[in-house]
Every structure is written in structure tokens, then in C-alpha cells.
Amino acid sequence: MLTTVSRITAVMAKELAEAEGVCARPLLRRVTDRDTGKVSRVALACGSTREAVCPACAGKARRLRMQQCAEGWHRADEPEAAVDPGHASVTSDEPETPDTAGINEGRRIRSTRRRQDMPDLPHVPMSNRTVGVVFSGKDGREHRPSMFVTLTLPSYGAIQDGAPTSPASYNYRRAALDAILFPRLLDQFWKTLRRAAGFDVQYFSAVEPQRRLAPHLHAAIRGAIPRKVLRQVAAATYLQVWWPAFDQAVYTDKLPRWTGTDYADPMTGEVLPSWDEALDAIDNTPDARPAHVMRFGAQIDIQGIVRGQPDAERAIRYLTKYITKDVAATHDDDQDHRHQSHVDRLHRELRYLPCSERCANWLRYGIQPHHAGPGLAPGFCAGKAHRREHLGLGGRRVLVSRKWSSKTLARHRADRAEVVRAALESAGIIAPETERLAAGVPAADGHARFIWEPIEGDHSTYAEVVMLAVAERRRWRTEYETARDIQQSRSAVPP
Ligand SMILES: [Zn+2]
Ligand SMILES: [Zn+2]
Predict the structure, then answer these.
(1) For 363-376, what is the mean pLDDT?
(2) What residue segments make up the domains of the chain, in order of their start?
(3) Element containing residue 151 per DSSP (H, E)
(4) Any idea which ligand is nearest the CA of 21?
(5) Nearest CA to 337 among 157, 158, 163, 156?
(6) How far is the CA of 390 from the centre of ligand 2 (A)?
(7) Ligand 2 center to residue 294 CA distance, Å?
(8) Could you tell me the distance, in angstroms and rounded to a whole number, from the CA of residue 481 to the centre of ligand 1?
(9) Distance from residue 183's CA to the centre of ligand 1 (Å)
(10) Ligand nearest to the CA of 465
């Protein structure tokens, strides 16, 4: 009985938290202060970026992204000097050199023959600058325009109201593969664009599904690039994937077994070709063809954007509109049967396609995945791309180039320390003036002063913690509104 009551309380607390914009699933920690011996309970916001998981935290994450987008878009000074070069990757979402064995310019020396050439575009002199050029207007004012660009994928079959008119002839295989490999095509695009534009082009971009479920890219680009160049680059960009063939299933019933070091044929015990051996075989086949080739669709949308204009504001909201939603839920407002069946079919298609070099599905095609280990079963790859809520888009949804903003690693750390400090402070553990202690300052003996341990909260603990957070939020709001009213009444009085 008691359990039921506390469970109902927990459900109500969750609804209340969502209505009040407070984290709905806080993480509970026990904090021991080794200097004073005091033990306290602290609730940390879950920090989810998914609206379906926690609307409050996802909303916060989205606002942070909007700020990041705005900070870098129209900047006039080079952010390079401010970036800590050793840790630059931590401050950006641009992928580190991805695991590209067998694809494009991988590290494999023997693959040189297969290296993907840059598309044939006019060469321009390259400059190191990342900021756009300045134009002087007739009014004598300076303009530093930037751009907002949308790139799409080609057609896989006729679409009506977000679903194929003829599912049987819709190319689900190509649609699924293109979605999986979309980020790699984007890498090619940025490389090519930098060469063709002649400067170190920076971007803040979001990958989102269109209603037909094909991913497309919205990108804020710093600096102006002639439309003709953008169109040329988009049309010339292509991706060749030099993977082993995966159009013939070899193992569907009895699956390859793990020998302790390799995967072997379940009947003969013969070890399957390793990933590197499979790639060598491609190299040694004179008329080998890439396993997949992809390009953008013909549709490209280009807008010039000038700082501070309504267009810029609108574009930032647009760029971040869907980043907190799961791919399959992005167009959930159309809960119609045809669209849901379309989602189901694409999801089914994704089950046995390889999501990467390391995908368990390679075993289905008689190849050991790259860095294979025990426990792999085709059709049950752990890669996010296969899941229904991701529909091929297993990677990051927001992609930001390294020199977009000048946030240093130290500043990110400071942001994090701020979160911890606020949590300790609100729990009454430390006074605001001792804030530096929260950021892991060692105790007298040189060890960290605070010991953090997770607590498994039951329903009533959970409800209690959420109610406290809601009460605090309400108190802040009242204080803020009072302060604002006082200010307004003062400014209304003539001096
Ligand atoms: Zn949360
Ligand atoms: Zn996979």
C-alpha cells in the first residue's frame, strides 16, 4: 500500500517538475565532506539532451546550443588564438579523424589506389582565416555577411505526405545506407568547400530527418561564399565506401562462432577473413567497385544572413528546433498509419546493414568486423544507428567545426564546476563564498575534499527531491518577479 502511494507521489512529482521546468529525473548523490565529516544528499540535474527523457534539461541544452550558434556565426576576430590547441577537439563537435579504415583516405597504405580524389573544382589560393570578408555598403557602413545553407539527399522514390506512394518500389536499402553514411558525406563536403572557397570555413550544423525520414543538414556558415561555388561544391561532392560487399547474406541460420581470438564458420571451423584481409582482397581485385557511392540531392537552399537581423534569429531557432527530439519522433505530429509504416520499413531495413567498420552485421556477410571481440551477433548490433528512434543517424546531431567559437577547455571546466558549486550550495553544504572548494580543491592531506557516491533513491526520496527543486524554482521566480516589478515601478516614476 505504502509503495503504491509513494509511486503515485513520484508520478505526480514528475508531472509537476515538467510543468515547472525542473529536472524530472535528478541523479542523487551522497556527498561526504572529509574536512568536517558532514554527509549530505545532493540532487544533480540529469543533463539529458532528449526532450522525451527530460524536457527541462533538454530545453537547457537547446538554449546552450542556440547561444553557441550565435556566438560563432558573425564573429569578426579569429577565434584561433583563444583556443587551447592541445584540447581543441574537446571544445567542438567536429569529429576527430574517424575510424575510416577502408574508406576515403584511411590510414591503410595499400589502399592508396582506392583513395578518393577530390572533385574536380577550380583551385583558389588558400588562406588561414576563418572569418568572413567585409564589404563596404553604399551607406558607408561595413557588412560582414554569413550564410545559412540546407543540404538534402536525393530521392528514393515518390513521396506523398511523408510516405512513399509505392512502398514496394521505394529504395529503402539506399535510403538506409545514405542515412548511416550521411556524416561521412558531410566531411567530404566541408573539406571540398574549404578548398573551393579558399579559407578555413567554419560551421554550426544540425542533422535532422525530413518528413520522408531522409536526413538533411542545416548549417550556419561563417563568412560569405558565392552561391555558385556552394552549388558547384554540393554537386561535385561524393562519397565512395570501400567496404567488402554486403549484398549476399552468408550466415543467416547458424551463425559464426567465437574461437577466443576470431570468428569461425560454425560447420567447418574455418576462420573468417579478418577486416584487414577483406580490405586487402579489395585492393587486389583490379576491377573492384566501391560497396556504396552517395551524393547529395539536387536541392540546396542558400540564404545570406547579416548579424542582428530577424533572419539570423529565425535561422538559429530553426537550426536548433529538432535537436532535442528523437529521429523517429521528429514528425510525430503526423501520427498517421502510412507514416508509421514508413518508419517501420526503414527500421527493418536498417537491421542487417553494416552501421560501421565495427558492426556485428559483418558476420552475416562472412567477414569479421574491425576490432572484433566476443558476443557479436548479426541483427543485434549495439550501434545506435539500428535503433528505431535513430533510423540510421547513430552519431551526433549537432556538428560544430573546431574554430567556431573561442570557448576554451578551461572555460568548459569552469562551467562544469559552476554546476557542482550550485548543487552544493543549494543543498546548504557550502556558503557561496567558499565556492572554490566545490571545484575539487584538495583537503589538507592533499586528497579531494568531497567524496561523491551515487544513491539509489526510492519513490518517496525521488518525490521529495523533485518537490524541493520545484519549491526552489518557485522561490527564485517570485524573487525575480519582485525585483523586476520594483525596477519597472522606479523607471515609471519621472526623475
Ligand atoms: Zn533532467
Ligand atoms: Zn551496427
Answers:
(1) 96
(2) 2-56+410-492, 93-401
(3) strand 146-151
(4) 1
(5) 163
(6) 12
(7) 19
(8) 25
(9) 28
(10) 1
pLDDT at 495: 44
Give 245-287 pLDDT, tens digit per residue.
999 999 999 999 999 999 999 999 999 999 999 999 999 998 8
Residue 156 CB contacts under 8 Å (≥ 6 apart), including other chains? 164, 170, 171, 172, 174, 175, 178, 214
Distance 60 CA to ligand 1 centre (A): 9
| Centroid of ligand 1 to alpha carbon of 478 (angstroms) | 22
Ranked by mean pLDDT, which of 351-355, 391-395, 467-471 comes out on top? 351-355
State the ligand closest to the CA atom of 18.
1
Q: Which residues contact 422 (CB under 8 A, 6 or more apart)?
A: none
Please, which pLDDT band fits residue 451 given cuts at 50, 70 and 90?
A: confident
For ligand 1, the distance from its centroid to the CA atom of residue 459, given in whole angstroms, is 16
Q: Give the pLDDT score at 98.
A: 42
C-alpha 120/C-alpha 196 separation (Å) is 10
Give the Cβ contact number of residue 131 at 10 Å.
Answer: 20
The secondary structure of 19-45, three-state, reads HHCCCCCCEEEEEEECCCCCEEEEEEC
Higher pLDDT, 466 or 111: 466
DSSP character at residue 493: S
Answer yes or no: are the C-beta atoms of 466 and 22 closer than 8 Å: yes
Ligand closest to Cα of 359 equals 2
**Closest ligand to the CA of 45:** 1
Radius of gyration of the chain (CA): 27
Cell digits of residue 50: 532528449
* Ligand positioned closest to the Cα atom of 353: 2
**179 CA distance to ligand 2 centroid (A)?**
13
pLDDT tens-digit readout, 187-229: 999 999 999 999 999 999 999 999 999 999 999 999 999 999 9
